[in-house]
Structure formats: C-alpha cells, structure tokens
C-alpha cells in the first residue's frame, strides 16, 4: 500500500488516498473517496527521475504517486525503454561511459570516418565537378596572383613540349596541361588544380637546374592529380551536406568552395601521407620513362639553394608547401638506386 493523491478531474480538490494493488486490481481509499480499476485499464505515465507517476483511471480521474514510492511491479511490462533509461540515468558510471563512448565515436568519425567517406566520394565525383572547381579557382587567381609569364616564348614552348610528352605516357591521369605564370606574390611554386591544370611559376622554373628536374616536379604534381588529392582535401573540409550534393554533380554547391582552393594551395599543404604518395607516384613515373628519380632530389636541393635559409616566406612557397626533409630525399635516392640497377 502506498500513499498518493486523487484528482477527480473535475475540481481542483486534492484528496489524500492509500493505493494498493491486489492481483490485477488497483484500488484506492481515502478522504471521502474510494474506488477500484483493473490495472490494465490504468494508463501509467513513463518513469522520469523526480517526477511523480500519473495513473490515469478509466473514470477520468488521476492518481499521483511520488516517484520513489511507486512499487516497481506495478509497472512491469510497461515503458520498457523508459525504465531502462531511468535505470541508466541513476548510474553515474553509465553516464560517464556514455560521454566517453560519444567522444570516442566523434573522434573516430572525424579522424577516420569522415576522411574515408571523403575519399570514397572524391573518387566517384563526376569529372565535370573537378573541371568546374579547377576552372573557378584558376579564374579567381588569374589577373591577381597569376600574371602572364615573362619567360621567352621558346622556353615556354620547350617546357610545354616536355610536359606533354611526359604526361602523355603516364597512366591514370585526367586530361592535363601545363600553365606558366609570373607570380610575384606566390614566388617559386607549382601546383595542380583539379581540372588538370598544372601551374608553374616563372620563379620556380628559373630555379630548377635542368629539364629532368622540371619533369620531376611535374611528375610529383601529376601524382597529386592522379590521386585526386585536391578534391579529397576539399571534401575533408566541406562537411557532409555539401559532400553529398557535390557527389550528385550539383555545380552550385561549388561556389564558395572554389574560392577556398587558392587559399588552401597557398597557405596550407597536403598531409605528409599525400605528399609521400605523390612522391612515390613521381619516382615510378620517372623511372618508367627512363628518367632517374634522383632528378626529384636535385630539384629539391636546387630550390633550397635558390632560397637559402627559407627566410622570405613569399619566395619559398614551394619549399614551405613541400618541406625538404631528409626522409623524402632518402626515398628519392633509394628510388634512384633501384632505377640504376634495372
Ligand atoms: Zn606536393
């Protein structure tokens, strides 16, 4: 038997009653009121910590029983989920564990899930999305950051010829072409845009010692293109909604994203893993066409010599995007040894 309050549903009067359950029969008795009902006909509110239970009776009246007074077996078979939640809410360790699980899931999603999904979607992205994104980005940069090249026309024609001949024999590429610009603001740099444009600046071309080193840097950029690095990087940062609309070829979703491409190219850099992949791609592509991969190391050393100390941030973009580290040079040297053995 438990104490409760009886509200008749017509007046505001509250009557104190004693409530009991015998078999399936619920009965109450108190201040000039008494009655009974089958438990199955009584609608019992869900369990919520600190909130009294409301038992709606068939006659339209209600019984209220304090939360902690409610006998558990009166609820048997009802509100299973709420009962479970209530139990969970009472256990502090469950709450802490939940926070931990949610935190770990979030971390896992951001660290692995999202990049995984971004890669899958980038790989299936309609080609016209890459083209549209690359062209929009190029349009934004042209006239501001990218000015007409001052290299002699014959030199440009020669480089273009080298680039075309090399890239034609590299498999797994979209349509690519070389674009040469003068860019006082971005200094010595080379980058690939998702539409297949590989941009070299005059300053970078002047710093490279020979044709082979030019081809080596081109091969590295072609690696970024072959692996869709630009799109994958963009996809990691746009969020799910944009990702999905892009996957369905919605070009309007590109506005805004394309504007971020130049900023990314000039201020950020690919992950080490992406750089290592582009390097490996380059070493293989070079070797396959009879060019010693040491040309890549030569290019890196030449760039470093051209900008000793890497003091002026403007002039050493390629080096800041592509840090010269011993590991990359060692890999180029290893690829070269391998090449010479063949
Ligand atoms: Zn790179």
From TrEMBL:
Cofactor note: Binds 1 zinc ion per subunit.
Family per record: Belongs to the peptidase M48 family.
Residue ranges of domain Peptidase M48 in the record: 155-334
Name of the featured protein: Peptidase M48
Pfam families linked to this entry: DUF7092, Peptidase_M48
Database matches in InterPro entries: DUF7092, Mito/Outer_Membr_Metalloprot, Peptidase_M48
CDD domains named in the record: M48C_Oma1_like (cd07332)
Cofactor needs: Zn(2+)
PANTHER family hit by this protein: METALLOENDOPEPTIDASE OMA1 (PTHR22726), METALLOENDOPEPTIDASE OMA1, MITOCHONDRIAL (PTHR22726:SF1)
Keyword Membrane on entry: yes
Domain spans labelled DUF7092: 1-77
Keywords (A to Z) from UniProt: Hydrolase, Membrane, Metal-binding, Metalloprotease, Protease, Transmembrane, Transmembrane helix, Zinc
Transmembrane spans: 93-110
